[in-house]
Design a protein that fits this description.
Blueprint lengths: L6 E4 L2 E6 L8 E2 L7 E5 L6 E4 L6 E6 L2 E6 L3 E5 L2 E6 L2 E7 L1 E4 L4 E4 L3
Antiparallel strand pairs: 1-2, 2-10, 3-6, 4-5, 6-7, 7-10, 8-9, 11-12
């Protein structure tokens, strides 16, 4: 049996595969003209995005969670990072965080 990846990362965007979640309880996120935008750069205007149609992938919000429902393999692209292919499944979208142990602060990584 082939091992399934459970995490993917591109820059500061982190995707974690989730199981046993009912996406029917969620709300489809409005599509951006650029496709599915997972995260936008704070300064440069660059973004982590997927150019696809709804038959390939959808962005769904359930409470505070943003989920990517992938029906066929899609590719996340970013202007400064290599492409990352996402296989079918449900993926929770998060941001990489860094922890400063001296100041005891946790903050999102800025891309």
């Amino acid at each position: 049996m082939k091992n399934k990846l459970t995490q993917l990362q591109q820059g500061d965007v982190l995707l974690k595969r989730v199981e046993n979640i009912n996406i029917q309880d969620g709300k489809k996120a409005k599509r951006d003209p650029r496709g599915i935008v997972l995260a936008e750069g704070e300064v440069t205007g660059h973004y982590h995005g997927i150019e696809c149609d709804e038959s390939e992938a959808e962005l769904i919000q359930i409470g505070e969670k943003m989920l990517l429902s992938v029906k066929s393999p899609v590719t996340i692209k970013h202007q400064e990072h290599g492409p990352v292919t996402v296989q079918p499944g449900i993926w929770e979208i998060g941001r990489v965080r860094e922890e400063d142990h001296l100041s005891e602060m946790v903050r999102p990584v800025a891309d």
